[in-house]
Design a protein that fits this description.
By secondary structure, the chain is an alpha/beta fold. The chain contains three helices and eight strands; from the N terminus they run ββββαβββααβ. Strands 4-1-6-5-8 form a five-stranded mixed beta sheet, sandwiched between helices. A three-stranded antiparallel beta sheet has the order 3-2-7. The longest helix is centred in the middle third of the chain and has 13 residues.
């Protein structure tokens, strides 16, 4: 979140893709929204270390980042998100305090279940090429 002195926070998210091309969505316990797993980096934490930690905390899975697929800025809250396509390498899906449900979603399901600002992150992660760079207001692209 943006601090009183105008600094930004940096978050990471992992778009975990299975061998059928579906992506893992988590339903957040605090607001019922569907998203890719992720969260805010800790101050002394490397980017991929933080990604692995956040995904593990929210899903129980271990992942290997494959590619940086997008950089997104929430213009309202001052959060810069780095999104990575990941492949699962171990672990087991486990419900926790942050996540109430999981769903392996097709791209069409992502479009229906996820708000625009977060759906685009997941959909961008399914494409090869240069990372996307986008801004949003927390719900819609701007």
């Amino acid at each position: 979140m943006m601090t009183a002195d105008g600094r930004h926070s940096v978050s990471v998210a992992g778009v975990i893709v299975d061998d059928r091309g579906r992506v893992l969505l988590t339903q957040r316990a605090d607001n019922d929204q569907w998203q890719a797993p992720g969260g805010v980096l800790e101050l002394n934490e490397g980017i991929t270390d933080g990604l692995r930690r956040e995904v593990s905390e929210e899903t129980g899975l271990t992942v290997e980042p494959v590619a940086l697929t997008g950089v997104y800025k929430n213009m309202t809250r001052g959060i810069v998100a780095l999104v990575f396509r990941c492949r699962p390498t171990g672990g087991q899906l486990t419900i926790n305090d942050e996540v109430q449900r999981f769903h392996w979603a097709t791209p069409d399901e992502v479009r229906q279940m996820v708000t625009e600002a977060f759906a685009v992150r997941v959909l961008d992660a399914l494409h090869e090429g240069a990372p996307a760079i986008r801004q949003h207001d927390g719900v819609h692209l701007v």
